[in-house]
């Protein structure tokens, strides 16, 4: 019923849009449809099905919080690099359990600050919990290589 809907939820980092179609999220934000969007997952088991994590970085990725990792090369979803975040926050993780994965982006217009009215108008389904909707710091972003891990943001 809700498989192709755009959800508005408070993620482990900031209020964001979530959807199975990243092009739909890019249209909502007013940016290039082909721009990459972060994939959010609820467990490390789901991560294993999408990308191959280099052995050298497995412990770091397993223990990370509020971090996004960019994996190079082919994967189960797209033919190029893919940014993936495994959510450890219990509220958001419980929501993500209902889906194999969801693309996620902040709930604001492209290159503009968070605006609650904008977010509410564009969301098809509102997901609320006790934290409410607010802008908070974005996740850290790391590029994963076979031998190195480099912080991008």
From TrEMBL:
Superkingdom to which the source organism belongs: Bacteria
InterPro entries: DHBP_synth_RibB-like_a/b_dom, Sua5-like_dom
Domain YrdC-like: 17-147
GO molecular function terms listed in the Swiss-Prot or TrEMBL record: double-stranded RNA binding
Name this polypeptide is given: Sua5 YciO YrdC YwlC family protein
Organism: Helicobacter pullorum
């Amino acid at each position: 019923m809700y498989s192709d809907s755009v959800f508005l939820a408070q993620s482990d980092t900031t209020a964001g849009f979530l959807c199975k179609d990243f092009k739909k999220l890019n249209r909502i934000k007013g940016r290039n449809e082909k721009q990459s969007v972060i994939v959010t997952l609820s467990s490390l088991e789901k991560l294993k099905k999408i990308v191959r994590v280099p052995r050298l970085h497995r412990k770091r990725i397993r223990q990370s919080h509020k971090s996004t990792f960019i994996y190079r090369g082919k994967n189960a979803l797209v033919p190029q690099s893919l940014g993936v975040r495994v959510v450890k926050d219990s509220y958001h993780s419980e929501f993500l359990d209902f889906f194999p994965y969801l693309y996620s982006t902040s709930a604001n217009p492209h290159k503009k600050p968070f605006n609650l009215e904008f977010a509410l108008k564009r969301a098809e389904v509102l997901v609320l919990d006790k934290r409410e909707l607010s802008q908070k710091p974005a996740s850290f972003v790391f590029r994963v290589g076979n031998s190195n891990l480099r912080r991008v943001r």
